[in-house]
UniProtKB/TrEMBL annotation:
Pfam families referenced in this protein's UniProt entry, alphabetically: Pyr_redox_2 (PF07992)
Cofactor(s) the record lists: 6-hydroxy-FAD
GO molecular function, one term: electron-transferring-flavoprotein dehydrogenase activity
InterPro entries: FAD/NAD-bd_sf, FAD/NAD-binding_dom
Protein name: Ferroptosis suppressor protein 1
Keywords, ordered alphabetically: FAD, Flavoprotein, Oxidoreductase
Length: 256
């Protein structure tokens, strides 16, 4: 037998952020019959673990988005959180609405470049179309450069090379070893060997120096990408897989 929650009727939980953590919390609260509101600036959950596959396979993106309103009904509020007042126990939305809470769950997650992350505040159908457009750009490109050799960059390079073996795929990484530092060295070595077997060209211990001048995620023939070591790479498309950061803007000033 599971334990029962003791509620006195004053509970109102506000969950800020509808990623994996926020939706898991909201689902548990619903199963416990605890009143809650899930707030997110987007209208749908994005299963970003599958996002890179959606960038290369047409029709896959629609499998990675789930409507919040269909899932949580009236317990979902679409809105951008611009402030939190812990004294008044209020969450302030950009349209001026204030949501009172007895308990607050912050699950704002992280952000990063498309296609690994999707941060645009647009409707689900438009988001799906953005990935479909990316598929077409990759299809047009014969030489594709992936910048960043962490988990996202490694997967992006492998997804492209798996779907399009004839395309030239180059991966630039600022460190000498690929993938995330939390992984065993043996695992990171296997990752490198798999990419090499697939035919991915690796430029390790190199950092792009002109990234601000590069048009990313779009086909543009013969773009020249330079590194700090003066290496030049010519590509038809550049995909950034770097710069993951914590989404803290909603509460950065609220808790001192």
């Amino acid at each position: 037998m599971g334990s029962r929650l003791s509620l006195d009727g004053s509970e109102q939980v506000v969950v800020v952020g509808g990623g994996f953590g926020g939706t898991a919390a909201a689902s548990l609260l619903r199963s416990w019959a605890v009143p809650f509101v899930l707030v997110d600036a987007k209208d749908s959950f994005h299963h970003n673990v599958a996002a890179l596959r959606a960038a290369v396979e047409s029709g896959f993106a629609k499998k990675t988005f789930i409507s919040y309103s269909v899932t949580f009904g009236d317990s979902f509020r679409k809105g951008k959180v611009v402030g939190i007042d812990p004294v008044r126990q209020q969450v302030l939305l950009s349209d001026g609405e204030e949501l009172h809470y007895s308990h607050l769950i912050l699950a704002t997650g992280s952000d990063g470049p498309f296609p690994g992350k999707f941060s645009q505040d647009i409707d689900m159908e438009s988001a799906i179309q953005t990935y479909e457009d990316m598929v077409k750009e990759i299809e047009k490109s014969e030489r594709i450069l992936v910048v960043g050799g962490g988990a996202a960059g490694v997967e992006m390079a492998a997804e492209i090379k798996t779907e399009y073996p004839a395309k030239e795929v180059i991966l630039i990484h600022s460190k000498i070893v690929l993938a995330d530092v939390e992984l065993l060295d043996s695992v990171r070595q296997v990752v490198k060997e798999i990419l090499l077997r697939k035919g991915v060209r690796l430029l390790l211990s190199e950092r792009v120096s002109n990234v601000e001048d590069i048009r990313t995620n779009r086909f543009q023939k013969d773009m020249v990408v330079r590194t700090e070591k003066d290496t030049e790479v010519v590509a038809d498309m550049v995909i950034l897989c770097t710069g993951i950061k914590i989404n803290s803007s909603a509460y950065a000033t609220a808790f001192g």
